[in-house]
Structures are given as C-alpha cells and as structure tokens.
Design brief:
Layout (H helix, E strand, L loop, with lengths): L4 H11 L2 E8 L3 E8 L2 E8 L4 H16 L7 E2 L3 E5 L4 E5 L9 H13 L9 H8 L8 H14 L10 E3 L8 E4 L2 E4 L6 E3 L5 H5 L12 H18 L10 H9 L4
Parallel strand pairs: 4-9
Antiparallel strand pairs: 1-2, 2-3, 3-6, 5-6, 7-10, 8-9
C-alpha cells in the first residue's frame, strides 16, 4: 500500500514515533503499525469530528476493562500512550489471527457479560455460529448481519442500571486470536446506560446495513430521542412517557 509520505512525516514528528506501515483507513480513524518508545504499537488516529465521541468512548471502555482481572484466555489491548490534543492513541500490538473457535468466541461473550458489557442473549448462539469460521464467513457474514442488524444493534432488555456497557461494533474483524488467547478490541462505539438516561439503548436504536451510512432520518430520530430522554430527566415530559421504540415509530411517521 502506497503511503502518503507527508502524512507519515507529520505523524512521526508530532508523536515522536516511527511509522512502519498504514493498516487501513475507516470512517472515523486511521490505523498504523508503528514503533513508539522502542516497542511496536497500534496507532489509532481519530478524525477531528469524532474526537469528543468515539475517541473518548474507547478510552473509557479500555480503562474500565483494564481494571478487571483478565482471565488468561482474554486480552484487552492496553493503552501505551495517548495524545488527546490530537485524538491519537497507541495501544498494544499483537500479531493476530482471525481463526477463532466457537469456544473462544463464547468465552469472550461470557467475560464481557460479566464485566457488564451486554449482548442480546437470544442471538448469542447465532453470533457464535456465524463468527466461528472465517473460511465460511462470506457471503454468509454479510447476509446474516444485514438481515439481523436491527436485532443485533437494538438491545432487548437494557434496564440493568448504571455502568452497563455495549461494545457497539462486535463482529469478526474486532475479535482475533493471539496464541491461545482471544483479543477483543475497537471500542470506539462503546456506550453505556444508566437507570434513567439510557445512552446505549438510544444509540443502538439506529438500524442500518453493515458498512453503510446511517440515513439522515435516523440521525434525526436519534437526536430527537436524546431530547426526549433529556426532557424526561428534567421532568418536562408527561408521566406516560413513550418507550424508545414507540417514540421512534411515532416520529418516523411524521418525517415525510
């Protein structure tokens, strides 16, 4: 892959590191293999418009999980260095494989659930079956996640109180194997819920095809839902407040 030398030079000077290669460029961030402080790291560079959202979310999630006692078969890459003024984070580097067994995936789901990272329980078996064999992933991967994205993204029961997290982007490319352990990473979509203001439920209400852009009407609905919950928190809404789904349904009828 041809690298933008001016961009590489800029990053190396700014971060005092040595860029090895660019891994990819996504919607919200760039990823680079780099050497920082004499060790290999994964640089995650967030676009400016996502700094106060995804960059901060990822940091909160990683720090929360790093305080947990990691089992030997689960790895959460640790933060090596951060440059918050630039929206850049360096995390541990692992030489990874995506050849995962069903037991490894189930173990990661179980552990995340224990750390209050929740998933729709009735879809766990489907997730395990469809994530467990990379050789059979395409096109079944695309077909499965396209047809089930609404149920996967929308939490079924999300009333478990403060500090309940949602990974938000749990799929095969964000799981990997290192020796006999499984690595879970890419927490930039992680959200949390509380008893009253359920941010995770609100954000996961958006339904769109994997790899597609969120339609503008859904962005509007999420914003209106946020407003609804804010008003309810401050006692500005009727006692018989609408549920999240009822609100979205009623608002969507008035969009056109």
């Amino acid at each position: 892959m041809k690298q933008n030398n001016s961009r590489v030079d800029q990053l190396e000077k700014l971060l005092s590191c040595k860029i090895q290669k660019k891994i990819n460029f996504g919607l919200s961030l760039e990823k680079y293999e780099a050497i920082y402080d004499n060790q290999k790291v994964l640089l995650r560079i967030f676009d400016d418009i996502y700094f106060n959202d995804r960059y901060l979310r990822e940091g909160i999630a990683i720090r929360k999980l790093s305080k947990s006692s990691d089992p030997s078969d689960i790895i959460i890459p640790k933060i090596i260095q951060e440059w918050p003024e630039y929206g850049v984070r360096a995390i541990e580097w692992f030489d990874m494989s995506h050849n995962l067994s069903p037991n490894q995936i189930k173990s990661s789901l179980t552990w995340l659930n224990q750390q209050r990272f929740k998933f729709p329980y009735n879809l766990q078996d489907d997730l395990i079956n469809h994530l467990s064999n990379l050789d059979q992933l395409h096109p079944s991967y695309v077909d499965f996640f396209s047809s089930h994205s609404r149920n996967i993204l929308k939490l079924i029961n999300w009333s478990s109180g403060d500090n309940t997290f949602l990974h938000g982007d749990f799929h095969i490319n964000n799981l990997a194997r290192f020796n006999d352990a499984i690595i879970i990473y890419d927490f930039e979509y992680a959200t949390y819920g509380s008893h009253f203001y359920n941010n995770a439920q609100i954000q996961s209400s958006v339904n769109h095809d994997i790899g597609g852009n969120i339609p503008i009407e859904w962005q509007l609905l999420v914003s209106l839902t946020n407003l609804h919950w804010f008003l309810q928190e401050h006692n500005f809404s009727p006692k018989e407040s609408l549920t999240n789904i009822e609100l979205i349904s009623s608002l969507s009828k008035n969009l056109y």
